[in-house]
Amino acid sequence: MRNGVSLLAPYGSFKFKALATKVGGGKEPQESDARCKKEIQLLLTLADGMKIYSFQYIWSNETFVGVMAQDLLAHSEWKDAVSIRADGFYAVDYSRLGLRMTTLELWNETGMDSVKAVSTTPLNA
């Protein structure tokens, strides 16, 4: 338990907004918990060790590109970008990493540029 919320909430408790509102790394943290994803494949490991994956959410067949919250929690410099949602699953504030989540289609067209955020809120701010 952390902040009184179970980290192992049942999958039936998902209360997600439409995926279309999630791509692009808006102001709201993105669902980034590995427990919410399937078809996970490592695409790239950045020079600083951060891993970028392709994945599908368990409720969708669309493929996205982004990070895994569990990876970020293992590194002191990135863990502050991770929060726990009310349902117990992890979310990531991509803007704090200088990144945004994207689709695999856009990644295939523009590569790393597709996940670079336009503006960021640095973790040490």
Automatic annotation (TrEMBL):
Span of domain Peptidase S74: 32-74
Alphabetized Pfam families for the sequence: Peptidase_S74
Q: What is this protein called?
A: Peptidase S74 domain-containing protein
